[in-house]
Automatic annotation (TrEMBL):
Organism: Novimethylophilus kurashikiensis
Catalytic activity: 3'-dephospho-CoA + ATP = ADP + CoA + H(+)
Source superkingdom: Bacteria
Protein name: Dephospho-CoA kinase
EC numbers, comma separated: 2.7.1.24
Keyword list, A-Z: ATP-binding, Coenzyme A biosynthesis, Cytoplasm, Kinase, Nucleotide-binding, Transferase
EC class (word): transferase
GO molecular function: ATP binding; dephospho-CoA kinase activity
UniProt entry tagged with the keyword Acetylation: no
Length: 198
């Protein structure tokens, strides 16, 4: 089955694009959503994160305190690696299980924000679709959506692969720098293309 790897920098509009593909009939597997599920209250990863980092990184509801953890991993490279060692194998396992399930969808979209930063998913996908927008717009959207400061948004962009490198590695590109209607039009065109490829 055709599997498209969908990626892009913070604030580029990956989730919106993935949701639009889903409305057209594609099956979407989102590694960020899987990560949220794995760090929900009572999940095995929570106990491991608490043991590795301390209970102060678990919120009052019992889920991962994402804001506290984001701050920690951006200040400490070894903490970032430790968190990845806990979560990434579980995420990959969940993706593999979902890909192994039969589907009536014509193709699948695998959303991986750090697709270029990790080699874990390259063998699972046939094409890479990058959702792109200019950096100032990324920062503006990240500040609005995730309540980040400008410096926090910039730090996340700086920690990711460069926009140029991302675009160079893409098979397909959606430029999400204007209206929702424009985004829908581009996704409709790619949907038709992927139906042909599938």
């Amino acid at each position: 089955m055709l599997v498209i790897g969908l990626t892009g920098g913070i604030g580029s509009g990956k989730s919106t694009a993935a949701d639009l593909f889903a409305t057209l009939g594609a099956e979407v597997i989102d590694t960020d959503r899987i990560a949220h599920e794995l760090t929900a209250p009572g999940k095995p990863a929570i106990a491991e994160i608490s043991a590795a980092f301390g209970p102060e990184f678990i919120g009052t509801e019992g889920a991962l305190d994402r804001a506290a953890m984001r701050k920690r991993v951006f200040e400490d490279v070894t903490a970032k690696k430790r968190l990845e060692d806990i979560l990434h194998p579980r995420i990959r396992q969940a993706v593999a299980e979902q890909l192994a399930q039969p589907t009536e969808a014509p193709y699948r979209i695998l959303v991986v924000p750090l697709l270029f930063e990790t080699d874990s998913y390259r063998t699972l996908i046939q094409r890479i679709l990058v959702v792109d927008c200019p950096e100032p717009l990324q920062i503006q959207r990240a500040m609005s959506r995730s309540k980040l400061s400008e410096s926090e948004a910039q730090a996340i962009i700086d920690a990711q692969i460069s926009r140029k490198a991302r675009l160079n590695g893409a098979d397909d590109v959606i430029l999400n720098d204007s209206s929702l209607e424009n985004l829908k039009k581009q996704i409709s065109d790619f949907h038709k293309k992927y139906l042909r490829l599938a």
